[in-house]
Amino acid sequence: MIVCVLLLFAWLPAPILSLKPVSAHRRFEYKHSFKGPHLVLQDGTIPFWTHHGNALPSSERIRVVPSMKSQSGSVWTKSNAAFENWEIEVSFRISGRNRIGADGLAIWYTRERGATGPVYGAVDHWDGVGIFLDTYDNDGKMNNPAILVVGNDGRLTYDHLNDGGSQTLGSCFRDYRNIYHAVRIRVSLTEPGTMDPSSQLPSVEQEEYQKEYERFEKDLEKRKDEFQKEHPELQTPDEEAFETEGQREFQMVAGGQRMIHEELKKLRERLDAAFTEQRRHSEHLSRMGKDERTTTAGGHPEQDTGDSERLALLLNGQKEMVQQVQEISVNIADMLSKVRQSQQSLNAIAEDKSHVNEIQEHIHVVKNGINSLTNTKVQQVSCPEVPPIPSCTSAWHFLVFIVLQSVFFLSYLIHRNRREIHSKKFF
């Protein structure tokens, strides 16, 4: 029994859109295919297919695994693929937030349906062929993502540590992770002696491709010769014209360290300048203390003891100040950046302060005016009497108006009701 499966063992989401095996005569086999919309039935099952593990089928696609670690899922056909020649087309997407992928995706063509296992979510020692889309670099050779074809007769143990290693029948490298559009893979199987229909090209197209290739090759050789004639000093061997990925990363690290070294050098120069300035001030103060001590000793010998104590206190204060300056100089670079940022805020504060001063002046003027008003004696002024306001209407007129309004309103309601009854007779 030979079945075909599309399986993913990873925490990365990989929805599968279609799987279409066809025969040598391009006959569509609906029992070996699925495609949205209306992919699943009301009970959540896929017609002619079974899903296992953490697979999540929906109306548009099948999500083989959710976005969680250590998850596996699979989708298997119920019918046997008893075809001598067949071709399948798989549309899928593998995406995730992490730069490091999980195990990957596998397309199985085996004798029996595989259960959950360690090889891309399926059992090891399979009997058939597996097409692996490997997205995790187990051997550390930076050769992922890759597409591998591995065959097994039921006795081979898959080499996980070396990503298949010498067990692969063929491989290629292709970046299919985190791509906005769906990726399509077409796999065909033909009997020996039979040409693969997908690989056949008309003779006219083959001739056009060959002519175009020869034309581009001649143009490239011509440009290379012209460049070598114009720049004879740039004779670089081909193996030295390109840098490896490790060399590129090393250059990036070296460039970053060079920038850090330059910044540290500038900071050290600023610290040296600050220390020099501080030392100059300290020497100047010490010299002034010596001159004052000499003057005191020559003119007033009775005050020598008090002056010496004051000078000792002054020198101790200078030493403490030097220590504080040394501690502060460590953060000079940060302080300079903060000062630049605070200059703008200081300008805004100065403007606000001028506005505040103006407001205070206005408040002072208003306060003086209020004080002058409160201090002045105000004579009691009697308000004039308000004349009586005559009423606009009497009670009798108001009642008559209400009665007339009610009569008119009732007449309008009766008239509208009659018109509605009269209009209903025509329907």
TrEMBL record:
All residue ranges annotated as the L-type lectin-like domain in the record: 26-252
Recorded superkingdom: Eukaryota
Annotated signal sequence range: 1-18
Keywords noted in UniProt: Membrane, Signal, Transmembrane, Transmembrane helix
A cellular-component GO term for this protein: Golgi membrane
Record InterPro entries: ConA-like_dom_sf, Intracellular_Lectin-GPT, Lectin_leg
Name of a matching Pfam family: Lectin_leg-like
Gene3D superfamilies: 2.60.120.200
Principal place of residence: membrane
SUPFAM superfamilies to which the protein is assigned, alphabetical: Concanavalin A-like lectins/glucanases
Composition-biased stretches (Basic and acidic residues): 276-294
One Gene Ontology MF term: D-mannose binding
Region (Disordered): 225-244, 276-306
TM region positions: 395-415
One biological process term in Gene Ontology: endoplasmic reticulum to Golgi vesicle-mediated transport
Topology with respect to the bilayer: Single-pass type I membrane protein
Cell location: Membrane
Protein name in the entry: L-type lectin-like domain-containing protein
